[in-house]
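Standup notes, protein team

Yesterday: finished cleaning the Catagonus wagneri set.
Today: DH domain-containing protein structure.
Blockers: none.

Input for DH domain-containing protein:
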Amino acid sequence: MEPKEAPGKENMGTRRKNLPFLRSRLYMLERRKTDTVVESSVPGDHSGTLRRSQSDRTEYNQKLQEKMTPLAGCSPAETLTQEEEQKMQRMMAKRSKIIKELIQTEKDYLNDLELCIQEVVQPLRNKQIDRLDVDSLFSNIESVHQISAKLLSLLEEATTDVEPAMQVIGEVFLQIKGPLEDIYKIYCYQHDEAHSVLESYEKEEKLKQHLSLCIQSLK
């Protein structure tokens, strides 16, 4: 006959299994007390506020600084070898190049949007051409332009006069994530319809001429 477990022993085991889960929940609740709320600064954005953990940001910045400047606080015996130092320098140079390319890409994209709005969208709106629906053709391109300008501004602010090792651009994307999603959801959702509208306009000679003139001006 197998010995019976003492009353409550099974419950104690279950409680022990639940302890790690409870500790993690309590830890998250404590961290949430330090969360900061950032309001969206994009005009017309109703995506609400973005809640970010102050401890997350501090921890990330500290880890980044330690990774990028490993010599700080090291004893002579712990200093990097020449090979390791060269590897770190290459990594830093690559990271800096990626950030610069990212910002330049945003500048080029914003410039393309501005040209499209100035040379195509606005002239077509001003002409008020019958059977040509500019909004169906270009969707919310002005909102895309506004959020792109905001993103570029935040990226430049995060990198101007800041040492390369201290440039933290991930925070920028977290801050603007909500507005970006809301605006591009509309733009992407209407993309197929806009493509169909364009194909139908190209079949009408008069509308096709108007579009061709705008494209020539854009070029």
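Follow-up from PR in the comments: Residues 82-127 form the longest helix (46 residues).
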